């Protein structure tokens, strides 16, 4: 594994570049990501390129021995470009155009901007694509950040109509698939179809799902256009993109098919503050992040990535600027996060960023260096992590223990129609993952179309759309299976199947879900030493009740090697259920103390202590 | 009383219709509501009608012995109609047009749509108005649902100006009535008057009140146009409309004057989750709904209805899809709700809906049948309720105990100017109603212009606009009277009367309210074993203090047969006050245990136990 | 000190005016503010003035012996004026124009309205500027109320571009100062710069700060135009404006330079409900207001005012209408507030308003008279306060104890970039002020460019932009100094200084802040008998740690006569720190019981008891 850093030579005097590069090498960094926000410096006037400064920066970094990952600058088109075609701005859900003045100010469906993005990609690739110092490319930056996948522009509407025509063939087929008869929503042609925003009450969920799929496809298409240019002009370099945390705006399984390496940006403290953690977790792990945040994404994106190649393109090195509260990591956490990524198989961890820029939007976001150029605390931790990794050398491959199944369209379905506030597939996956991790086992997070050979245990926390591949794989699977609520209850167009659940899934569970309730957290269902809550699927079939509440609710069933969890996959009942499944699967496990997590690679077992920031190997 | 069901033949294969009708009859249903969302099937292209399918559906249902309630399909105009006049869409409070893709996408003031609504009403009425199977009509569907009464469109603005000119005669009279001199808001002509949205800070409350009245009148006018056509083309059939719960967007007393039967849609579990109930109530009654939700609306809409004819046009049969959380009713509740409606005098209870449609916006909303056509739990409960009703036969008329006075303009005034967050007349009425019901007495909820003969007790929880009729009736009334805060403190244009309260009301209370305070719930006023809160009216006059707090606040006064409650009509002080009034009125009462409610009809006393879903008669 | 009242003769029959004036004099009022909302009566049609009524009103008040403060009516332009140029309406942050129908419906940057405002000011001044009864002028009314300083209109955008060109000279200088290279936000000309609203994610904080400064300057410019006319046409009269509470939309230090007297509008109960007080404070002081609300603003605006001349242009006399809950003041509070203003040096306290108007937006806002013309409780309290003041006669000057430094741009910076939710300079100032007041000492709140001679103690709670004048004054200061977090960490364009803190400030603290953390309130830092929270600045330098937490965090340092507080200036640690500083400064102090506050003037020490509304002098 390499360590790297994100660097913005355009922020600093040229005199400093060589010293920066020297220091990077000194603390063991081998990679440097540059260029992704530099369009206004590369092309200060339309068609007038200024390559000199970037040529010198590349040369300086290369000659210091650093491998350069060059970013295409398409996340930050300059003002002159926006002024030349103001309708390239995305339109928000309320129907108003978004503005220039930060970043990601473009609509993925705007053909004019698509052309400009390809042009700048091509000229940058032509300039540096063959440079020996350039070892990889990052396309754009954080697709979807700041809620930018969906645009409600005329361009998006027109493209959506074309996309629908392509997918459904006839408008009659679309009307039938979506059930548009319901409220006289039937269309006579694709040109009558609007985007699903601003409807009087919620739009047809099938309408939203199609729009989510379309919007995701527009991202994939935009990215692929850059990838094709880069593969043509700069062959042999790894192409990557930096995904985000707890983000499902586009289908990462799809995106990853066009990349060599799937990267992601790991900010455990910010994520803890901004996402759905309890007050207690926010207090106890304020300076560490919840112990499953980083690992969940490592395991998720490894499962998305083609050939399993992934990295951390941005690693939090200190306080950030964008969460509600921004504390500093506990001393040792930067090293811990780095080694944890290594244990989970990252090819690289790249710190964001080399030096804190004293101006503009992220002026309060730490770097390895302070704004005054002196080392920040992470500087020494990065160096220390580099030494640890060198000492460890290659570790063996991670053995397969548990597989957890997640799909992006399942998350979209549960976002569009949570039925109970906050019940979404992503968070079902996260809590199920956390339950597995507290047993000390390795977890792979896999797409539905996957192979399950070699695993002892498969958990499907919440997967409304059962796929043929997964149904078949589960049928063949001889380990233990745990399936959570809502699974198999939708076809690909959001309809409830005629048999209430997917036919093959019905075979697997020996019955069907005949009724679903969503429950507020006020309604605790209590059994013998356990509680469950949040949801209740009512089952009819031949499976045997396993966890039954004192008040009679059957919270789970067992059918052969499969357990069906009818409540939300969270809480003490679900933990016991997973523990039983692990036991029945013969999977060695233990109940880990608070804050402790394991990861096993070959004969090495890593132990990460999130309470103290200590790491040990045995 | 009849039982009925809402049915959508257009959702299901024609082969199934006869079997559906047979099953309906089998479980004792006599009425079926159809057609209200079927415009796109009735008129798939502009001016091209497709009656065949609906003819056959009507025939199938009729020949099975079901009485059909036909809906006019005006809540869901098809896309081609919207595209032909896009400005028929309502405009939201922010000034942006709302979109097609769900329902109720029209502005009540748009003349072009008004014409189209009359056209489709006429052709449907012409087709089925004389059919022997058609026993009634429902106009449109749930006027106001999804916040659709108010539209801030140019059409609404122009109509509002005309409405104001009609009401005030001269703009000088309007300026005077509204007090427009206050902030130089004086108009020189009606054409200078804008809608009250998007003002820099709140608009003149008189401006809002006029707009609320105008908006309500537009609904009445829209509905009346359909009623006139139906009466002409389909004489002898009952015309009805389905009102909603806790909804005051238009004046239901006004609407009901044009209808034969006022229906409403009863969803106790959804209402519990979505309206202002305490966490404790949401937990304890999650599967039942608060025990006063259904009865409050039964008694309210019976009081609105011309000749007291009312029904339940939609009855919740299982989990719904639109509340924050959507649990299933406790076994027995569907039967209980049905019999409770019967006890309160409903002509019909119609379950929504026959069979759960596996697609579109309400795919998670239960029916009597599951999506796969098998019976859902409510199926047997409906059958059981039908048998109970048959067994009971006719019960006697409900004796008059307590009358509770409520007016829609009082609610508008307290919404426009709550003065204290959440203090509104509707919720004052609900809590006062609940206090009466916990004494086991019958309650009638009546408009201010009413007769009070025969009642023992009259409660006026919060009625800013005292009417001449009510003041006179109260003067003549020889039972006990309880009057709550803010009553009589406004004229019809929102002004404080010159004597601070309405002159006749001043006579009734022997004084006046000289100052009002709204209090947060943090400020509890405590007396000897009781507490009060929320509001404090300061009284000057000859009435005697009755409930006086330890800290000196006079929370209520007594003046002859009238008690004046100066705090919000809620909590233990108010309960004692009402209990004393019942006692003084010689009205038999008792303190009912949690969850128990009575309703007395003739010699039968119904007891409904909301904790166990049990019903008994004695 | 004079007492006065706000009066609206246009609300009442002319027959009543003389009696009103007589009563005003009877209870000791000497000043009456009129005219500020009367444009539609002064100029009912474009260019047609109606002076008669106002002439008679002025004459009536004058002949009763009242000194008149005349308002320019520019806060409420009439509808005909708006219709003549609809683009005079301000545009909200979402880009939509705001509407007519309340007040303050104008954009400060609209040149056409600027001209109209000058025209109406001139004609009113010409009419009454030499009248012997007119003793002062109020410009407009509550600049900024209802969030009206910022407008995102084309007029504002164009003016902003001109303002930027003026300030920065070249766009290159602006790009450099703002760090626009960061996300390719570089501009090629000032004409490319947009307003900072509607950006995809947050705009550059330097962009926002410039826009805040520009918007403030537009207010100053608008006001100055009126002041110049008034000085020309009505010389020798005091010109004033009424500022608001907890409001920082424009720079009050700047505005006050153009005024003779800075007024403010004191509504302690409303402010308690609407601003950031704890539930406990809201309960305990519901009828009094937090005991530092009024005094904080007295001391703040006295420090803003040229020559220290200030007054209370509106004093709450009873319940208001605009807070979430609106209780009545405890008996005695109106008198207490009046005398407290006197003790803090007010030239006048003017009650808002004479008589409660029974209509329009403020119909629930109390006056000295009720709507029916009878005295409200405040009537007698005002009279009583007047007698007290007469009895007291002149009190000596208030001795200098503690100075507290606050600047508006520091507040803007912490609002734009709180880094931790809710951490703003104004509230740091308020809590530091409260800590000082609980020691019983006099506090002056001063701008950074100030003299510190004569004070024992200086507190700088949170001042990101250190000024040369303050740095020099602190260096020379030989009393005790307390400095809070973020101080000295920004240059005037929002950049972090090259040495991390301002160079002169670095000398003062003997080091620098090298890292800042914002902490949620969940993270309590506990020391020996104290707690701290909210923020943690990490310091490097030669100062000595003073308060050190059990877990090792250094919460404050001492360096010579300066204490550096690294946590938020709130809570028990900060209180101890301030108490130590007072002790070291030799400043007599004591720990006051809850609700008790002192103010010392000459040899008189006032004691105000907020729990009982008692006042004593010794």
TrEMBL record, chains A, B, C:
GO biological process assignments: carbohydrate metabolic process
One annotated GO molecular function: metal ion binding
Domain Glycoside hydrolase family 42 N-terminal residues, every copy: 6-391
Enzyme class per UniProt: hydrolase
This enzyme's EC code(s): 3.2.1.23
Domain Beta-galactosidase trimerisation: 402-587
Any Pfam family: Glyco_hydro_42
Binding site for substrate: 103, 141, 322
UniProtKB keywords: Glycosidase, Hydrolase, Metal-binding, Zinc
Active site: 142, 314
Record-listed Zn(2+) binding positions: 107
Catalytic activity, as annotated: Hydrolysis of terminal non-reducing beta-D-galactose residues in beta-D-galactosides
Gene Ontology, cellular component aspect: beta-galactosidase complex
Assigned protein family: Belongs to the glycosyl hydrolase 42 family.
Entry-linked PANTHER family: BETA-GALACTOSIDASE GANA (PTHR36447), BETA-GALACTOSIDASE YESZ (PTHR36447:SF2)
Protein's UniProt name: Beta-galactosidase
Organism placement in taxonomy: Bacteria, Pseudomonadati, Pseudomonadota, Alphaproteobacteria, Sphingomonadales
